[in-house]
Amino acid sequence: DHWIGRAPSASQIVAYLGVGTVALMFAGVQPILLDALVAERRLTAGMVGWSFTVEFLTLGLGVALAGAIFKPDKLALHGLWAGLALAVLNLAMFRASGLAVLADRAAAGLVEGVLVWLTMLMITRSATPARWAGIFLVTQGVLQVGFAAILPVTLMNRFGANGGFAAAAALALAGALAALALPRAAAPLPTDPELGEAGPQRL
Question: Hey, is 193 helix, strand or coil?
Answer without folding.
Answer: helix
